TrEMBL record:
Protein name: DNA-binding transcriptional ArsR family regulator
Entries under InterPro entries matching the protein: ArsR-like_HTH, HTH_ArsR_DNA-bd_dom, WH-like_DNA-bd_sf, WH_DNA-bd_sf
HTH arsR-type domain segment(s): 11-95
Domain of life of the source: Bacteria
Iron-sulfur found in the keyword field: no
GO molecular function, one term: DNA binding
Protein keywords: DNA-binding
Length: 203
């Protein structure tokens, strides 16, 4: 497993944090290379709007052209620039850069709200038999090195399924029944619940 590139520049994080650009990256990660017109169809947005956001992402090195997939010189196919490994977000470095404190704070707020929505949806009483919703919680007694080894093993599993997902995205006829699934994974020392020792205010 190669080291993932780190996002340390507030301008890159600001570009990445835009809702439409986040969705574009999600689609490229899940489906593999796409044309702006394909992304516009998937997101139900005007093609010129999507093309603008794709070019913005390319300007910050988050997406890149895949010329080997183009039909001709005018055809532009885009892929995530991370090579399938993903990016590592270094919020400390972002906050330390000029203008980065506000960008990092805004990201934390957006990411926290998104995590809350994901958990609420997973625990929702409205169940759809056509989809899977799952939350897994586990605890381990680990050193930092052991935690890093666990992270590496989990990342290898994600790489395998990312490759499988992108291969399926190459075959539209096989796309029936598929939707973009999102996995939220947090590995860190356990955070106490409210009301338990060290957990903050009691109810």
């Amino acid at each position: 497993m190669t080291d993932r590139p780190s996002i340390t520049d507030p301008r890159v994080l600001r570009a990445f944090a835009h809702p439409v650009r986040s969705r574009i990256l999600e689609e490229l990660n899940a489906r593999g290379p796409q044309r702006s017109a394909d992304l516009a169809r998937l997101l139900d947005l005007p093609a010129n709007q999507v093309s603008f956001h794709v070019r913005n992402l390319a300007g910050y090195g988050l997406v890149e052209e895949a010329p080997e997939l183009a039909r001709d010189r005018r055809d532009r196919v885009w892929r995530a620039a991370d090579g399938g490994d993903g990016f590592r977000l270094d919020l400390e470095a972002v906050a330390a850069a000029p203008g980065g404190t506000a960008v990092a704070a805004a990201w934390r707020g957006r990411a926290g709200a998104r995590a809350h929505r994901a958990v609420d949806a997973a625990y929702s009483a409205a169940r759809d038999p056509a989809v899977l919703r799952s939350i897994t919680e586990a605890t381990f007694l680990l050193t930092k090195d052991e935690a890093s080894a666990l992270e590496g093993e989990l990342t290898e599993v994600l790489h395998k399924w990312t490759a499988r997902s992108r291969a399926a995205g190459d075959e539209p006829a096989e796309d029936a029944g598929r939707s973009v699934y999102a996995l939220l994974q947090i590995l860190q020392p356990r955070v106490p619940d409210e009301g338990e020792p060290g957990g903050g205010a009691e109810g």
